[in-house]
Amino acid sequence: MQTKIQTLPSKKNIALVAHDGKKAALKAWCLTHKNVLQTHHLFATGTTGHVIEKATGLSVEKLLSGPMGGDQQIGAKIAEHQIHMLVFFWDPLASQPHDPDVKALLRLAAVWNIPVACNEVTADLLIASPSISDEITRDLPDYQGYLATRLD
Ligand SMILES: O=C(CO)COP(=O)(O)O
User: Fold this and answer.
1) Where does the MGS-like domain lie (predicted)?
2) What is the per-residue pLDDT across 43-77, written as a single tens digit (0 to 9) for each?
3) CATH number of 11-135
4) Residues lining ligand 1, Cβ inside 6 A
């Protein structure tokens, strides 16, 4: 599929999500990277956002709680090109009642070619990347081309 290029501003929209078993890890990660995170616009699912705000003092735009639709809201923002990076500490050792939503969020992040970190090591690499602090370009899927093949 042909791709299109999108130029991203230096201030990125970063989505932060953690399952309950991983909230302490994400809270600690946000504290470690507070200086960088405060230069970006932060989104989070509801409970995660409250935890991060309380622990760090960072300002977070809070969506619905994940199981109540928050994962889907972040997925929709990704599809609308409003999220530039996703830090999603999902819990590999706990089943989730909204597992289809979790999969859908990770799937849309792959479809729309945004950087995703599912653990601290990867999140450290992403937040240190020049592509987070600088203006960059990225490939987008060619949605019109895709649509044309579907409508033939
Ligand atoms: O369930 C979540 C991600 O799948 C996160 O939701 P909360 O931030 O509301 O706990």
Assistant:
1) 6-152
2) 999 999 999 999 999 999 999 999 999 999 999 99
3) 3.40.50.1380
4) 17, 19, 45-48, 65-67, 70-71, 102
